[in-house]
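Troubleshooting: if your tokenizer reports a length mismatch, compare against these two reference records.
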Amino acid sequence: MSNPLIQAFFVGRAVAETLNQQVESALTNFMSELGKFDAEQRENLRQFTEQVIERARREEELSMQGRTSGYSSTYSSAPNQEQDLQAMIDELRAEVAELRAELQRYRINRSV
């Protein structure tokens, strides 16, 4: 390498090849990380979707338990629940009527 022009050519060529390898390596690593990130996000989305669907199914099952159906044995206790609910409503109505009557008496006694 006695000629500086030839030496500069080979140094430039080595620099270009080294930079090319480093850029290629960096780009490969970036694409690999991007692929991993994409795969993780797809998995997270899949899990989220499954959780939402499972929660919706549970909510649907819970809401359907209160309804009566002659076709399924799982709903056999529903008529008793309806009767209990109706009894509670009747009791509350009686209490409201009693309170109204008491309030009426209080207003009458206060005005006298």
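Reference record two:
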Amino acid sequence: MHNHQRDQNVERKPNQSLRRAINHSAIRYLFFGGLSFLVDLGLLVLFREVFQWNLSVATATAFLLSFAFSYTVQKLFSFESAHRTHVSLGRYTLLVGANTIATVFIVQLLSLTGLGYGGAKVVSTAATTVWNYFLYKHWVFGGKQPTRDHVEEENRKDPIHNV
């Protein structure tokens, strides 16, 4: 192998590694999860500070809008799911409910330790982030991916619900 060929191989490896990392669903999941958090926080600030909405109304509205945003980007970009929307959205909604209960439980329990509620919230967020990745990948958006022929057939049968 000539030195020139070796130099080209060395230059390609970082690009391939970066491309492989970006193409991994876990990296996309974390990126779009962070983006969803920023959407939630940005909308909260907008509704509260600019529009002077009541804090509860601003918080709930920002959360619900970011919920829709998060579901959409996780489905389309993180996991590139071909699942029918009503199935994955139902599962996503159930998981949000379970995560809410788990978060309250973890924060309540760990706030009694030296962590306090702030540290407990960090632990609960880390825990839900980890298990959500696997649940999103294998249950909410995953499982058997329909073939292109199956998707086209389903679209012909039910074009309204197959979004």
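Descriptive notes for reference record two:
- The longest helix spans residues 25-50.
- The CA atoms of residues 108 and 117 lie 7 Å apart.
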